Amino acid sequence: MPAPTDADGQAGTPANGSANGQPPWFSGTGSAGVAIEPPASPSLAPDADAAAEQQAVAARAAAHAHRMWTAYTVALSALAAACMAFGVVLVTRAYGVFNSTTVDSRDDIYWAQLGGQFGPWVFVVGLATAIGVIFLHASRWRPPAD
């Protein structure tokens, strides 16, 4: 088996630069016998880098808050309000026909049947859509950056 070589093709040292096959910082000395410090922790960044990171976080939070109301969520909110309003109108019209002593036309009977049968369901669909939009916003919500 040929002897291991380093990156320059020198025989005697492995490709990672240490004599014993370990990273140079693991054994405490490099291939030249000089002590090498482990890589610096990214949490020990200078104050300027920390301030830039905080500004970047604030910018991402602002962009995220702007994305909360997309065209999709606005359309769903409008659909929810329309369904709930139409459901109330249907039920109110049905209630008026069922409680009247005279029926003016056949259309009133149809509206009464339509409103009595589908009005509550249309309202519930609108309410469920509104609750879904609220859950969508809750899932996208992030606490503000300090």
Feature tags:
mainly alpha, 146 residues, single chain
List the topology elements.
Elements: H1 24-27, H2 47-67, H3 71-98, H4 106-140
Helix pairs in contact: 3-4
Q: How would you explain this protein's 3D organization?
A:
With 146 residues, this protein is mainly α. It has two domains: 1-39, no CATH class; 47-140, no CATH class. It contains four helices and no strands.
Topology order in helix (H) and strand (E) letters = HHHH
Report the radius of gyration as a whole number of Å: 35 Å
Largest sheet: none
Count of beta strands: 0
What can be said about this structure in brief?
With 146 residues, the protein is mainly alpha-helical. The protein has 2 domains: 1-39, no CATH class; 47-140, no CATH class. It contains 4 helices and no strands.
